[in-house]
Every structure is written in C-alpha cells, then in structure tokens.
Design goal:
256 residues; alpha/beta; Arginase, Chain A; eight-stranded parallel sheet; two-stranded antiparallel sheet; 7 helices; 10 strands; globular
Length: 256
C-alpha cells in the first residue's frame, strides 16, 4: 500500500474537480491554474511554461487533470521522468496530430510531442478505434503499440515489449457513458475491464506516475440540475475506483 503524504494532485483549471467531495477526502495538493489564459484545448508556449512552473520540477504521484481539454498536461508530467520508460495511455482518441500554427501543444497533439522525449521508449495506447491510426506519420507508428481494448491477454503481451518503468495516463472518454460522462465522443470500455488492466500493469511494472482526465465541462447552472449532478457522481465514482486501484498496488512508487 502506498501511503506517502499528498501523493494526489488536483489541477484546478475550471472547478470540475473541486466539486467532487469524495475525491477530496484523500490527502491531496490543489494547484490553481484558473488564472492562466489560453489553456483550454490549445496552449501557447507562455501558458505552458506557467503550467510547468506551477507543477514544479519534482515528479508527482497521481494527478487529476480535469477535463480532457487539458490532457496535454500529461506531456509535462511524462517529461519529468528521468529514466527510460513506456507510456501506457487509455484513450478513445489518438492524440497524435500536429498542433495548429502558433500553438505549442494541444489536447490532440500532446502524444506526438511526448514521443519525441528521449526517455520515452514506447507508447502503448489502449482503446481507440483502428480508423484513428489512419494518416498517422510512420515515424510515430514505429514507437506505438496499439490495443483496441483492455483484454488482459493483450495487456500481458504488450507489457512484454515495454520498459520496466511505465507512466499511466487515463482519459475517461475511453469508458462507456454508463461509467463516466465526458465532453468528448466516448468508447465502450467498462471499469470492469479498466481496473483489472491497471492491476496487471502495476503488478508487472514500476509505475513512476499516473494521471486521469475526462471530467465534463458543465455550465454553472448544470451543477444544480439532475443530469449535471449525475455526471459529477458518476465521474467521482470512476475517479475513486481508479485511484484506489493505483494506491493499493504494491509496485506503485511515488517519485521523490
């Protein structure tokens, strides 16, 4: 059991996580990002530098990012790993596109930038549709292992080809709408598939860190409506189950 203090970091870009009271019952550090301009979907270099400064130079344990619109923060978290590692990404989308001109990074391009990290040996991406790989540059595909789902037999085979150290990134849009509500098109994976996959990964590998995103973007009035409250409840449940699975893994180590 991992019991280090403040192993959980909540990034507050838009108040989506601060409303999840169950999540905040765990020891956590809250980093406020709301005043940084130009962060949703696309991020310029100045804003990216501000985010990196607030994250600090040290590695983090488990980071909840908020909306998938800010998934590019995973790049900064992965970049802090000094040793050779494999990125294991659960996502319904392939974030391997080029950022628009004048944009440093985006939620759709961060994986392409991460693959250029000298320490990142390989990326295992689990959950997207096969059609998502069409048009991806060959030099990116050479470092990718693609799995359409989270079957344990496929996970085990993929892990045989990876470094001993891994970083896990989870976008909850890989889950079915019955398990989580996001503001992106979603897959069909269940928590009954995701959680055993996480246990298998943490059983076999040294997990240097992990992050979770995929909170819904709600209007303030939505928080008062039954549908909005249900979205918060459903996502909080998924977050807690993911968190407990990672924290209970004996191989999970906080980076110091």
């Amino acid at each position: 059991m991992f019991t280090g203090s403040k192993v959980i970091t909540l990034l507050n870009f838009d108040d989506t996580l601060t409303r999840q009271e169950e999540l905040r019952r765990f020891p956590y550090e809250l980093i406020d990002m709301r005043d940084i301009k130009g962060t949703r979907l696309y991020c310029g270099q100045e804003a990216l530098d501000q985010i990196a400064a607030r994250l600090g130079k040290g590695k983090r344990g488990i980071t909840f990012i908020g909306s998938g619109d800010f998934h590019y923060v995973s790049y900064l978290l992965a970049a802090s790993i000094a040793c050779p590692f494999t990125l294991i990404l659960f996502d319904y989308h392939i974030d391997l596109y080029q950022a628009p001109q004048g944009v440093a990074i985006s939620c759709g391009s961060w994986l392409a930038r991460a693959l250029e990290l000298p320490t990142l040996q390989k990326a295992v991406i689990i959950g997207p549709r096969p059609v998502s790989l069409q048009g991806i540059a060959p030099h990116y595909l050479a470092k990718l292992v693609y799995l359409p789902g989270a079957r344990l037999s496929m996970i085990r085979q993929a892990l045989k080809k990876t470094a001993g150290t891994v970083y896990i990134s989870i976008d909850k849009d890989v889950l079915s709408p019955q398990e989580a509500i996001t503001n992106w098109e979603q897959g069909s994976m269940t928590l009954g598939e995701l959680l055993p996959a996480l246990r298998e990964i943490t059983r076999q590998k040294n997990v240097a860190g992990a992050d979770v995103c995929g909170e819904p973007c709600l209007h303030p009035l939505d928080y008062l409506r039954p549908a909005g409250q249900e979205a918060i409840r459903k996502n909080a449940r998924a977050n807690i189950m993911i968190l407990q699975t990672l924290l209970s893994a004996h191989s999970y180590k906080k980076a110091s």
